[in-house]
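May I ask for a protein sequence together with how it folds?
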Amino acid sequence: MKKSLKLTLCALGFAIACLCAGLLLQTDTFSSKRPKYVFYFIGDGMSFNHILGTEHYNTAKAGASKTLRLNFTQFDTRNFVTNYSTSNLVTDSAAAGTALASGVKTANACIGVDPEGNKLRTIADVASELGYKVGLVTNVGINHATPSCFYGHTSDRFGFPKLVDDYIASDVAFVAGSTIMDMKSGPQDPKYKPTTTAELADRIRKAGIELSLDVDAAAKVSGKRVALVAHDKENKHVPYVIDRKGDEKHTLVNHTKAAIEYLSRESKDGFFLMVEEGKLDYSAHEQDAVTTFHEVNELAAVVELALEFAKQHPDETLIVVTADHETGGMVLGWDHYEIRMNVLTAQKCSAGQLTKIFQRMREEGVRDWAPYKKVLSDNFGLWSTVPVTKEEEQLLLHDFHNIFLKYGPMVDGLYNKNEFVIHHALRILNKHASLDWTSLYHTGTYIPIYVQGVGEKAFLECRDQTEIPKTIATLMGSQL
């Protein structure tokens, strides 16, 4: 009898201990103090090898003996999640963006709706309901897939006019990007005819929203909604970081600074700010590793703005860094157990920029290989610092004479097209660095998540990207 009583008491004590531990864990995980300022960073197309490759590239470029870590990879809370859509194991940006915004999986091409077309509530809606001011920043179009998922509702991600109308009807206080996408909407929205960027910009202005081309002025607007773009008359994106001339005002960093200044001043109850590094996906679709590394560095630069902000609000800030999917299937170290990242430090511009240079030379009547070879050497380091075999040069000569000079087909990187001779020159450079790509499109691999701030431990429970916005909503004091 005594033995049975002891066992019962021991079991009861163990149960109480487990309950207390669970309560302590819950208190630590879902803090009673909600974040007043939420930063939600999305690297479009970014996965682990883009990040690790950037760290190796930075280390090689600096000539450092120790790996130079990116700021967000040093966050204490780190995890990885799945990201498939309902229609495919490989998601597109629309379905992935919807998952990251609403916590609901949907089919590829769907924005802010479930597979049946029903409208979904987003984390931006939750934030507005709770009194937060909402900001969305990107370095691609303000009505492109990722930002649109936080305010838009359509089964056709290319229904850009419809998405502009959805933005106008939303509560988004501040939006910034490179342009307003003006492509023809798809069959899901037959009432929308082909519309120009200028017409869509005029539609935004007529809605009473301050559409600004001035970064500094946009940050200082008070009492009304703001749309900050680099281009309001044509569908034109800001250049890649690697191609900047040094005096650009329209950058992801400057747009984010403007958003923080505006939101901090206009909101007493805090803000929710989503920032997308969208050009990263563009460069990965082109299999341009160095250009991609520069875009990852740009993401780290805007994360640094959040970290500086958090120093002033240490107990009120939540910073989440994640991605929507992986683009390109980047492989680090395919050759003889080596990564020779120092080889890539010779690249001076993007493949797209070099394609423009080649095309301009062709229009000027330059048809001899030698001047083009020098351009490749000056900008990619081929021949000058990176050895090129006879077989490799024969491939380039074939592309030059049989495709380029004859205005033949180009390599379609989804958002940009590059000449075959440029694409293969880039592949040769990557090969010598022991870096390769498996695809021009998306892959189905895991994506990372890094978190710092109020309630960060809660994200260790996330197993799929749909759980990220749900966790943010819970920490903010609501549900998705």
User: Anything to note?
Assistant: The two ends are 52 Å apart (CA to CA). The chain has 16 helices and 15 strands. The CA atoms of residues 47 and 447 lie 5 Å apart. The chain has a mean pLDDT of 93.
